[in-house]
Each structure stands twice: as structure tokens, then as C-alpha cells.
Amino acid sequence: MTVKPVVARYHATTVAVDGAAVMITGPSGSGKSALALELIGLGALLVADDLSQIVMQDDAPVVIAPPELPGVIEARGVGLINVPHCPEAQLKLVVDMGQIEMSRLPTSPAITEVNGCAIECLFRVDAPYFAIAIFNLLRHGRHAPAE
């Protein structure tokens, strides 16, 4: 087993759907772990809670689980719980819980930079379908209109 050097650390919770990771960022108490738990309830796997480590693999950012408490997530008011997990996944999406999406249909996805790579970024949507939309975006992709 080869050790991959850690390139960056983010105060973020990351889950994966079919090997595609979403890193959930935002200030303390913004709902990072809550959104992750909703995604896990839909079938996602926890990569990392609270601290996501990024390494570059084949010129793509990969989130790896820190060695402390693998498969453990904090559920506010409940405590630390064990959940299904995986050791790593390629970063495909960032969700910024510190900003609210105001557009009903954003004209183009926001982009953020992670280790020099452009990654699609969503802002928080205060609606009960948000986790389901993220899960399906990771699993099935974004609709591209016919030309």
C-alpha cells in the first residue's frame, strides 16, 4: 500500500455516492453533518466528518479519511455514531452551507478551486429535497439541454 501525501486539509464533511465525493463546507453549526447524515440515509458513504484531507491522484483531487474515528460522524444532540463509510473518493462537488442559493434555476453552476482544480459548487438550498437533489446529481449528473 502506497501512502499518498496530504496536500490540503479542509474543515468539511465529505460523503461519496458511487465513488463521487461531495465535500460539505461552512461555518460551525451550518448543517454540514446534518446534510451528510441525510445523504448517508439515501445510500451515500461517509469519507470524513469535520476534517477532509485532499490528495492529488492522476491530476484529480481525492478526499481521504483521516485515520482517527473512521466511519464515525457527529449527530448534534445524539452524539458520535457509526455509519457506512469508505476510505477515499474523487471530489466532484462542493456544497457551501455558508451561502444560500437565491436563484430557482441558476444559469450556470458556481465553480470553486480545490488544489488548483475547478470543482462545481452549490450553495445551501433550504428545502427538504436538497439532499435528494445532491444524491441524484452525484449519481446521474446534470441535465444537458439538447442542441
Mean pLDDT reading: 92
Number of strands: 11
User: What is Rg?
Assistant: 15 Å
Count of alpha and pi helical runs: 2
GO molecular function: ATP binding; phosphorelay sensor kinase activity
Protein name: Serine kinase
Keywords: Kinase, Transferase
Pfam family, one: Hpr_kinase_C
Describe this structure in words.
The chain is mainly beta and 147 residues long. The protein has one domain (8-139): P-loop containing nucleotide triphosphate hydrolases (Rossmann fold, 3-Layer(aba) Sandwich). Helix content is 15%, strand content 44%. It has helices at 32-42, 130-140; strands spanning 8-10, 12-17, 20-25, 45-48, 52-57, 60-64, 72-75, 79-82, 88-100, 110-114, 117-124. The strands form 2 sheets. Strands 1, 2, 3, 4, 5, 6, 9, 10 and 11 form a 9-stranded mixed sheet that branches. The chain has a two-stranded antiparallel sheet with strand order 7-8. A hairpin with a 2-residue loop joins strand 2 (12-17) and strand 3. Helix 1 crosses helix 2. The protein is globular, with a radius of gyration of 15 Å. The termini are far apart. The model has no long low-confidence stretch (mean pLDDT 92).
Question: Key features?
Answer:
Rossmann fold; single chain; 15% helix; 11 strands; mainly beta; 44% strand; nine-stranded mixed sheet; two-stranded antiparallel sheet; 147 residues
Short description:
With 147 residues, the chain is mainly beta.
List the helices and strands and how they pair.
Layout: E1 8-10, E2 12-17, E3 20-25, H1 32-42, E4 45-48, E5 52-57, E6 60-64, E7 72-75, E8 79-82, E9 88-100, E10 110-114, E11 117-124, H2 130-140
Parallel strand pairs: 3-9, 9-11
Antiparallel strand pairs: 1-5, 2-3, 2-4, 5-6, 6-9, 7-8, 10-11
Helix pairs in contact: 1-2
InterPro entries: Hpr_kin/Pase_C (IPR011104), P-loop_NTPase (IPR027417)
Protein name: Serine kinase
Domain HPr kinase/phosphorylase C-terminal: 9-85
